Amino acid sequence: MLDWILDTLSALKSKIERKRLERRWYKLRQQGMHLGSDVWLPASTWIDPDYCFLISIGDHCGFGEECLILAHDAQMDEFLDVARIGQVTIHESCHIGARTVILPGVVIGPKTIVGANSVVTRSLPPDTVCAGNPAKVICSLEDYLSKHRSRIIEATKVACVTSDTSLQERSQITEAVKKGTTYAVGGRTAELEGKGGTPRTPHVSRERVE
């Protein structure tokens, strides 16, 4: 009985969190921020609240946990009574690693991957993989993908984890990882079918919300 109550409360909590997340996306758009379709923007991603209308995120982007996106710099405010502001444009199909900080006046992508814990102080070119503080180009996107294509051929492949994955299947994945390089296959497909663990923004007009 207790397990049933806890499971019910957990399911209710998940639904409430999903609704809060959807409401946040809606309010950001209402405040003038362009937030594209099919974007994973978790609740922990901090969006500059006063200047969110200067931020644009294109379709199919994804963010790791605890990223910061800033459109203003008020470090000198006490001394000069001014703050520097700037647009932040993150083009389509960019993927930003956890705890990355993006500063005002930056353009990223399209199709740019930014490694976790990076600090993006200046614009990054499209079709690249970047990382560091300050973030800089590590390699081209094609080189990065080619490297993984080669590894996938020889590596162990398992099905990606979804809400339907059994304990036995999870155990099999654990054993596969212990033996060497392993790739989980089908994550993007599961997301498109609504089975993935990352809720994404619904379709929206490409025009900036006014």
Description:
This protein has 210 residues and is of the alpha/beta class. It folds into three domains: 1-30; 32-141, UDP N-Acetylglucosamine Acyltransferase, domain 1 (3 Solenoid), CATH 2.160.10; 155-200, no CATH class. It has helices at 2-30, 77-80, 141-154, 167-179, 187-192, and strands at 34-35, 46-47, 55-57, 62-63, 68-69, 72-73, 84-85, 88-90, 95-96, 101-102, 107-108, 113-114, 119-120, 128-132, 135-140, 156-159, 182-185. Strands 4-9-12-14-15 form a five-stranded mixed sheet. A four-stranded parallel sheet has the order 1-3-8-11, with helices on one face. The chain is globular. It starts with a helix and ends in an 18-residue tail after the last helix. The mean pLDDT is 92.
Number of DSSP helical runs: 5
Percentage of residues assigned to helices: 25-40%
Helix and strand element order: HEEEEEEHEEEEEEEEEHEHEH
Q: What can be said about the biggest beta sheet?
A: 5 strands, mixed
CATH topology call of the largest domain: UDP N-Acetylglucosamine Acyltransferase, domain 1
| Count of structural domains | 3
Radius of gyration: 20 Å
How many DSSP-defined strands? 17
The CATH first-level class of the largest domain comes to Mainly Beta
Mean pLDDT over the residues:
92
Structural class, by secondary structure, is alpha/beta
Inertia-based shape: globular
Low-confidence stretches: none
How do the strands of the widest beta sheet line up side by side?
4-9-12-14-15
